[in-house]
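Two proteins, back to back. First:
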Amino acid sequence: MTQHEPTIASILRHLAHEYDGPVEERRILDRVLERRPSSAKNPYATIRERLRWDGLKLGWLRLSRTHLVPLRVALEGLRFRCLPRPQDIEAGLLPLAHLQPFVNQRPGTCALQSPNGALLAALPAGVEADLATLPAFNLRAWYAQSGFVAGDSIVMRVVCAEPLVLEIEREAREAFRAAAVAAQDAELLEAIVERVRRAQAALVPCSEVVLPIFAAAPWRADYPGSPWQHLVLRDGRVHLVDDTFLTTQRIGALHIFGADEVFEPPAEGHSRQASDDALLAEIDALQRDLRQARQRDAEAGLWSGQVQRASAFGAAHADPGRQPFFSRLNHDDDDWSNDEFWDTDVPGDDDAIDPDDPMVILAARDRMFSLLPPETVERLQSARPEEVELIIASHLNDLLARAPDLFPRLELVAPEEQADDDLVFDVLSAGDWQEAWEEAELDDLDEGFDDDFDDDLDVAEPDDVCGANDDLLGQFQDYLLEMGKSAATARARVRALSIYADFLESYYGRNLAEGDYATLDECLFYYYPHRVGNTSARQVREICTAIKQFYAFLQQRGVVNDGRFAEAVWRRRDQAARVVEIYERISSESPNFDLLFERLFRPYTD
């Protein structure tokens, strides 16, 4: 590089002042290469790395996978709220953690001013160690002048983004308009939870989560809601670590920086009871919606209104000689061999075992449960996902010795050797399934149907339920491929549908052609959230979509007379997602667990 040749960083800083709104990342990458050509095989990679690690320092905020926005545009005019702690007020300080992620943690990088424009001095870290161990602003005079007391809040507004200047104004506790910001708070919290769940890192910087949400929110410059940190602490689905990072994991072992913290979870007993009370109110509201929806569908003639409860009372169906859908992988101990397990035919997956396939997961789980002590199995069944790994880890050596077939060697394929569909599925399995599912609408089933496509769907006799489901699922997958869906999309829908297939076989001895409203309701609103591992609100919506399309397909082929029940349950997909979300928030350690569980899963627990 010559002495006067621009660097990638300098070009990105310059470009950040040329745009006044969101811009496609590809456009920025091309603009950089125009000024600094590269002969690298992938010239975009280096620029993306700079944006990934230094984007905020260079003036850019990532809104999504495809779009960026200049940080100054995201910040200017933005309003947010701070709630200083009593000890902050007593010390005359406002720790910078309250201003995260809108203000850099380094003191001196921003200034505060009152509404009349008077500047307030910042307190550099370590200058007054008796007052602060954390970077903080010295607001002692302002607290006294404004009559600030515990419970009051500070409303912040970004007056200028470069250099960063914030206007602060006191709002008395009794003036806070909670009702006016309830919807805003709920929207912000759900967006935070969704972004953290989708992140692949265990610890996600709050700047990567909170800033993009505020930047794109229609209320970014309106009356501010509750501090996002308080929403996270009260909710419990996501945890705040060292005031800076967000995670879905348990936080006990994650306080790695050794710094004092501004935001700490409330006292255990009080916070748990308050959280349980809020959950109970939320559950009761959901149950009212569920009763109304079921009643409407009963009045529409979609079902009798009689609830089925087979999965609530344990195993089902009866014919000891019948093998359920997943039993191909559920051999007895003496018959369980590595060759049998990995040579098992999984329908629609080209004879390849996918470790993410529910069939494989359930079989491996049952096999592992048969080897573990009963008390350990009981702990696993009530454990949170993050606790499961720790419990299993304590038995790992024993499992490796007794059942090495549970841990097969996987052959890794180089990216350039993967088929396009496999590459797509890698992305989907990482958590970004939405595009593949949104692609599938019921109207797609009306387009270009091939009259030569297997006119007769031969449904197996009742004593061959497993074979019938294999046949139906295989033909549905072939149909989706013929309709132009990718192999990855077709496999994903069949996998989602197989949850219901397993439920029907295991508890009712039925094949998919014999499904109905009552069993669908039981599967989605009790069996799936309670008995299936690795559940998610997104996945249950995807199951609903797959079921809707599958029964429309069966109806078109004349296998079922009326598939309206599946579409009716699909319309309740958001309710199913709410059940999953709420169940995740019920602590297994809560003294109110039984009550919350019983209320959430009515009428299956009556």
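And the second protein:
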Amino acid sequence: MVKEAKQVPQNLDAVAVRAWCRLALDALGRAREEIDSINVYPVADGDTGTNLYLTVESASQAVDAAFTGHEPALPSLAETVHAMAHGALIGARGNSGTILSQLLRGMAQVLGGPDIPGGPERESAGEADHADGRTLERALRRAAESAYEAVAHPVEGTVLTVATAAAKAAGEAGGADCGTVARAAYDGACAALDATPGQLAVLGRAGVVDAGGRGLVAVLGALVGALSGETVSRKPADHSHARVDDAECEDIPAESGGPAFEVIYLLEADDSAVARLRARLDRLGDSLVVVGGDGLWNVHVHVDDAGAAVEAGVEAGRPHRIRITHFGAGDAHTTAQPPRERAQRAIVAVVPGEGLAGLYAEAGATTVPTRVGEPPASGELVDAIRRAHAREVVLLPNDAELRHTAAAAAEQARTEGVRVALIPTRSAVQGIAALAVHAPDRRFDEDVVAMTSAAGATRYGELAVAERQSWTMAGICQAGDVLGLIDGDVAVIGTEVAPTATSVLDRMLSAGGEMVTLVLGESVPDTVAGRLEKHVRETYLAVDTVVYRGGRQSALMLIGVE
């Protein structure tokens, strides 16, 4: 089904790439559970949809960072696709995510021209900073070719087959505009996906299509949306909705009885060393995929001897972000560690600034430090949940923009046997309020309700410095103005920190309150806190004030009113 939308440019430029990444992330977010449920090859571990989501999430964040770094101008197409490919490479998860990262890299080699190592020269000097339909055709063809090259033993009926069919269909579009080429690629991918159960026996026995191919269809559908404004929604064949449960997985031979560990790591090494590494890892296990280039690689392999796989990486170069997953165990480790008993309950919180990280840690929380403009990815939250090593986890994202990211992390952790409750805290001060009422001796549900109520009863404000002139709900601000935000919206525009903070406090306390929490950024002097404490004490009877230091990487000021 296709829903017509407003007309958008049919050429692929930096803005379209950014839109593509965001739409792909949204599409995979919606399809994640479906894709996880049909994941039977190469291992029936039910995480392909999540791995693809995490990979595209990393690519999308890298593209957003490229745009932020060029404001007010736009990055070039080459810079944007390079960021997309690099983000996917460093964030690739699982067999499917690793292959997808190579597909995006292959496209970037063509779309990025000479700015991407390995990319061909532009067809003509002075060409506009966008790709036309023929260039997109070549990019899709190069993507499929490079993915086949990255996989040690390509198997038909997988995402590789779907990518090749998409490229072939795009080439048959006859040099049309990008939107038409993308739609042809999408239709070709859909047809190839429906044929996968007849190409790969394990899919036919389980009655499902290839999970990685299903994810690629979602990504290509997002490309159609970014280029043509159409919203495509695939109506899959009946077998693509079949869910594979644990009992069915026991009946799948060979593929599910393979190596015990999945090993993934980033590797800094030259091409000659990687060629030797491929040969060595191929002897150690299967499902070998090595992607990347220009000194940075992502290595994925299934082995029985995880230590030997890591040792091979050490001999080839410098491995880091090492991730070892024992199939069926649901736990990942960066190094071999003796098993330890799980705690009953833990708190995992995203915190801005070293001071708050220390405060949360003192209260017993496992923290995920972040800085302004650099939000954590779902994978970082999943790793933190694993580090907490508890049967029950309360997750505090402390940022409205992290809602979907935290939800993806919670879903992944639940597949690993952890009971996770996500409390939608939108600021670190709401997290402090939730943490203050946390009682590990209570029943889990009761504790979550109490923490959620405390967070919800806390209004939050923030002080920030305007980076440029812009329209706000409080009027026009100039670069350098101090902005006072309440519940995420600009409410006050000032020139100095203390008066602006006072105005924000007055507005927040006008509806009542019992406790004010102030978190000061590194540049805010203690005298400002003293002035604000005095103002609250003299103006609002029976309202207490508590002050914390946010330290480096924290916001200018956070304000909470309970």
